[in-house]
Input
Amino acid sequence: MESKDMRKWSAPLALLGLGGVAALLLTERGRGWLRWLSENLRRAPESLLEWNEAAQRELDRVQAALNRVAETLQASR
Output
């Protein structure tokens, strides 16, 4: 029963997807968005590396705080 429903929706969804791609390629706004995306993707690895380092520092800080809490709980036993 589910495959029948999927077949019923596959053509409209495919047309919707093709329409979205056409809007990106054929409209000035879509082409501008693609230009922005391509320019910013070049910086992505650098930005991700910075974010990764900041996230690691935060995780280290959280781990240290948890270790202090665990030590305090063990000392109070």
